[in-house]
Write a structure and sequence with these properties.
alpha/beta
Length: 306
């Protein structure tokens, strides 16, 4: 495993993390505590130390599964990121909650679910610019940093095209951003990454396998079950993406390297990207994802020894 400093924060994170949206039940599978334990144990074995979750992956369900695990293992061995701004009601059904008082309640609920006294990275979750422009919210969050409930603030960007919130990140004491970035979607390279590098922001690349399309498992014509979030994607767009993946597999991926490992390393080799946070449904997927670190550059600007 390789490690990088997350921008201007003092967090040294593994270049491959574990994304946990799937634990909330919207990816076609309900996870047991035993299964989550096995995934996180394998992550620890491979040197992964970073978990990304959210308050609305289930109604704090993903956080609770992670919290149960952390309560029985060394919390100090993990860097935990979660998010705020929504309330989960049912699969694919959420409401938005952005007042300072609402977010403070969400923070306390997340700490309770995670069975912990602090969160390493607390991220605004896909907020609009109007929701972002809220001095009362950021003042409250700064007070929680000073109180020790939050170590660092971040923004999980709603758009991977518009850099408004990234440009203003340092003004609200944000040290890291999270954005959709993968071989099929390179929009952040235009505005967001240059802004991040100017400010020394850490960058977490979410959806690095393009919702699994870059995993190498799906061929043109693949159909997803109705309880899988990918079934909500436009049919023609899905067909186009799978055709692109087939071409990338044929022309860009070395024969002896799994496509998933190649796709993760492709993201990691951009100078702005600190880490990737792919989802995973099994210990085997964790192990495969972790292998991407072997393909990542050693001379990255944020590299640290570990």
């Amino acid at each position: 495993m390789k490690y990088r400093r997350l921008g201007k924060t003092n967090l040294e994170i593994s270049v491959v993390g574990i994304g946990t949206w799937q634990y909330g039940g919207e990816w076609g599978k309900v996870f047991t505590q035993y299964e989550v334990d096995a995934i996180l144990n394998k992550g620890s074995e491979t040197g992964i130390n970073f978990i990304d979750t959210a308050e609305c992956y289930g109604d704090h369900l993903s956080e609770s599964l992670i919290g149960d695990y952390l309560s029985r293992n060394k919390r100090e061995d993990w860097i935990v990121a979660t998010k705020f701004g929504h309330h989960f009601h049912n699969n694919f059904e959420r409401t938005r909650h952005w007042s300072a008082s609402d977010v403070l309640s969400q923070l306390d609920a997340s700490l309770n679910s995670l069975k912990n006294e602090y969160i390493d990275l607390y991220q605004a979750h896909s907020c609009s610019d109007e929701e972002f422009n809220n001095d009362e919210l950021w003042t409250m969050l700064d007070k929680q940093v000073q109180a020790g409930k939050i170590r660092h603030l971040g923004i999980s960007l709603r758009s991977n095209e518009e850099s408004y919130q990234t440009d203003k990140a340092s003004n609200v004491n944000v040290g890291a951003i999270q954005v959709v970035y993968n071989r099929l979607d390179r929009k952040p390279e235009e505005k967001i990454f240059p802004s991040s590098e100017r400010q020394n922001l850490g960058v977490l690349a979410r959806v690095p396998l393009a919702s699994g399309y870059l995993s190498g498992k799906y061929k043109p014509g693949a159909v997803f079950r109705s309880d899988d979030v990918r079934s909500k994607h436009d049919f023609e767009e899905t067909a186009s993406l799978l055709k692109q993946v087939e071409e990338i597999s044929r022309t860009e991926v070395p024969q002896d390297i799994p496509m998933a490992s190649w796709a993760l390393a492709w993201c990691l080799n951009h100078s702005a990207v600190t880490a990737v946070i792919p989802g995973c449904k099994s210990p085997e997927q964790v192990e495969l994802n972790a292998k991407a670190a072997e393909l990542a550059k050693d001379d990255h600007p944020q590299s640290v020894g570990k």
